[in-house]
Write a structure and sequence with these properties.
Layout (H helix, E strand, L loop, with lengths): L2 H63 L2
Length: 67
């Protein structure tokens, strides 16, 4: 096999390894960001549900006191 062909194969293999490592790091970062967004959404839902709970209970309380 000619040396120039060996060199090309070596460079392609090394670039492939770097691309694989880079993509795995990129996917891990996306996964971590996704988990943070999920936690934030869950926290917002809890706050909204708590506000609804407090509001609904206060409406029932005021309705029961005036009847």
């Amino acid at each position: 096999m000619p040396t120039w062909l060996t060199t090309i194969f070596s460079v392609v293999i090394i670039l492939g390894i770097f691309a694989w490592i880079g993509l795995s790091i990129y996917q891990k970062i996306k996964q971590i960001r996704g988990k943070k967004k999920e936690k934030k959404k869950l926290k917002e839902r809890k706050v909204i549900n708590n506000v609804r709970y407090v509001f609904n209970n206060s409406v029932y309380f005021f309705n029961s006191t005036y009847t």
